[in-house]
Design brief:
This is Glu/Leu/Phe/Val dehydrogenase. The protein has 16 helices and 12 strands. By secondary structure, the protein is of the alpha/beta class. The longest helix is centred in the first third of the chain and has 21 residues.
């Protein structure tokens, strides 16, 4: 495990253990080149500490690239709490976690992620001010899935314009994997845009709630079944690793554009996506609406201001797709290059003395 940490490019990894509360967590800071690292807290029943570490390292790096490409003055960080949130999440666990965040003295700002919600951030904030994504009642930005879904929708419109010459999604068949916070809100936006939606989720309750609101959507029983349906756009909105060689071979889509993090499960899969003629809208490019929302909270949250900025994901996505087309790089490699260029450029400015 230690060798894995020191072979990575991460600045800092903190292992948090409070025996009395049962807290076991890992905070990973990939980079603070652009400013304090920002990223959510995932509460998840990992099968091993190594799996938790791998997820924290992977997600924190993705956050650094996401924040950079979104134009934010924040580096990339992520935290994972090991455990089943339905069984192990409590005030004491969350407050113990907040103490560890506070010990980083502002190098890391946390927020919601899988298994955590805005009321949880209110509890963490009782121990540290380095928290975003708090409830509206506590002066926060609230549920960041609102603008995450909005950003994915804008990225999808940009991908449609690049592929089909029109931003309209009317009549386009969109297959969504995941009916959680982002998938359900994205469904709402797509239904309003007259798209044809097919969806799956392992939670029958989530599916029932969504189908109750939108009876004309089609529900299938599994992700494997979803990936084989006729579609124009595939939208992974659940856990990462959605696109591997097996799923890509089964996929009948012209565009991949979704809210899930770390969608590409294998090295080189971006090349195979391009070779198949599928247009991939890089995940951390299009799903940046949530971090834009919580970053706005740092300055005193204004929803309309944050939404305008999240709408800019359309232009960012189009820039990535057009640059990739002109250079011959994959869209994933292009997004990485643009993010890295900004991190390096802004980091260099730190050497300039701004004077008094």
């Amino acid at each position: 495990m230690i060798n894995d940490i020191f072979s990575s490019d991460h600045e800092q990894v903190v292992f948090c253990h409070d025996e009395a509360s049962g807290l076991k967590a890992i905070i990973s800071l990939y980079s603070t080149a652009l400013g304090p690292a920002m990223g959510g807290t995932r509460f998840y029943p990992y099968s091993s500490s190594q799996d938790a570490l791998d997820d924290a390292l992977r997600l924190s790096k993705a956050m650094a690239y996401k924040n950079s490409l979104a134009g934010l003055d924040h580096g990339g960080g992520k935290a994972v709490i090991i455990g089943d949130p339905d069984k192990h999440k409590s005030e004491i666990v969350l407050r113990a976690y907040g103490r560890f965040i506070h010990g980083l003295s502002g190098r890391y700002l946390t927020a919601c992620d899988v298994g955590t919600f805005s009321p949880d951030m209110d509890v963490v904030a009782r121990e540290t001010p380095y928290v975003t994504g708090r409830t509206v009642a506590q002066g926060g930005a609230g549920d960041s899935s609102i603008l995450t879904a909005w950003g994915v929708f804008q990225g999808m419109r940009a991908a449609a314009a690049h592929r089909w010459g029109s931003t309209s999604l009317s009549g386009k068949r969109v297959a969504i994997a995941g009916a959680g916070k982002v998938g359900s809100r994205l469904t709402e936006l797509l239904v309003e845009a007259d798209a044809v939606v097919t969806i799956t989720d392992p939670s029958q309750a989530a599916i029932d709630a969504l189908a109750g609101r939108y009876p004309h959507i089609t529900v299938v029983g599994s992700t494997d079944e979803l990936q084989s349906v006729d579609m124009d756009i595939y939208s992974p909105c659940a856990m990462g690793g959605a696109i591997d060689r097996s799923s890509l071979a089964a996929l009948n889509a012209e565009i991949i554009c979704g809210g899930a993090n770390n969608q590409l499960a294998e090295p080189g899969i971006d090349q195979e996506i391009a070779s198949k003629g599928v247009l991939y809208a890089p995940d951390y490019c299009v799903n940046a609406g949530g971090v834009i929302q919580i970053a706005d909270e740092v300055h005193g949250f204004d929803f309309e201001r944050a939404k305008v900025r999240a709408t800019g994901i359309f232009d960012t996505t189009l820039r990535v797709l057009e640059t990739a087309a002109s250079t011959g790089l994959t869209t994933a490699a292009t997004a990485d290059r643009l993010a890295e260029e900004r991190m390096a450029g802004v980091s260099r400015l730190r050497s300039i003395d701004r004077g008094a």
